[in-house]
Inverse folding.
């Protein structure tokens, strides 16, 4: 692996989403603003929530997580599918680029888009709340690891999909519903006690709760389990994607 080749792939991916800023950056910023206004300000001002924690401070980490996931997943999924569809992926495979360089280039491009989206959402949130960082090293850990995780998931979908409409199936039918029931807008204590175990089976619960703890110092999950789970998931998916590239699954005619 060389930094020059890795930087070339990463730069191409970054330039790709910068060419369409309305779709890749402005759209999620507007979406996050509406979430903050409606759920955080308008509805949140009428909710008597947790002691010493405003409702907007509670929901904002979940809103930020939603935008990070959407940015990373959308970037890697559509980029790899486009390169498969136009057959330009075969040129990359025939080039001196290693599989690791290609995959990391996709991942770094997706993380860059997620960070750009997240930074904009954070700036917007400052207008409505303090947007504190109680544990900033943990905050950056969750932001980076979650972005990498969904960049890898996006690559898997980009490899699997045969039609454009299939790219959004995972996000529409699995990711979005699990995020909404993963504690973005409600505390687990607000749910019936007999379904707490079901919530704790939701991986998004640990992502949202971990980011929330890093920002406002409030947690309802096992943070050690959450960090180990995320780190292990990234490693396993990276190995899986590398192996799929190595055998040329849906990459070669």
């Amino acid at each position: 692996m060389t930094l020059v080749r890795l930087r070339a792939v990463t730069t191409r991916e970054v330039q790709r989403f910068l060419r369409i800023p309305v779709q890749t950056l402005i759209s999620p910023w507007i979406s996050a603003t509406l979430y903050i206004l409606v759920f955080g300000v308008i509805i949140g001002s009428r909710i008597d929530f947790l002691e010493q924690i405003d409702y907007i401070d509670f929901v904002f980490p979940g809103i930020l997580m939603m935008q990070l996931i959407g940015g990373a997943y959308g970037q890697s999924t559509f980029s790899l599918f486009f390169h498969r569809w136009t057959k330009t992926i075969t040129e990359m495979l025939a080039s001196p680029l290693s599989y690791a360089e290609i995959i990391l280039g996709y991942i770094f491009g997706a993380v860059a888009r997620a960070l750009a989206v997240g930074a904009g959402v954070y700036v917007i949130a400052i207008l409505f709340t303090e947007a504190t960082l109680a544990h900033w090293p943990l905050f950056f850990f969750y932001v980076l690891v979650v972005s990498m995780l969904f960049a890898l998931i996006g690559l898997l979908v980009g490899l699997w999909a045969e039609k454009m409409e299939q790219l959004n199936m995972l996000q529409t039918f699995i990711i979005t519903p699990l995020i909404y029931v993963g504690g973005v807008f409600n505390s687990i204590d607000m749910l019936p006690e007999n379904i707490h175990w079901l919530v704790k089976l939701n991986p998004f619960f640990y992502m949202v709760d971990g980011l929330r703890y890093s920002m406002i110092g409030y947690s309802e999950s096992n943070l050690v389990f959450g960090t180990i789970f995320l780190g292990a998931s990234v490693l396993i998916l990276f190995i899986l994607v590398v192996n799929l590239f190595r055998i040329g699954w849906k990459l070669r005619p």
Q: What stands out?
A: The chain has a mean pLDDT of 92.
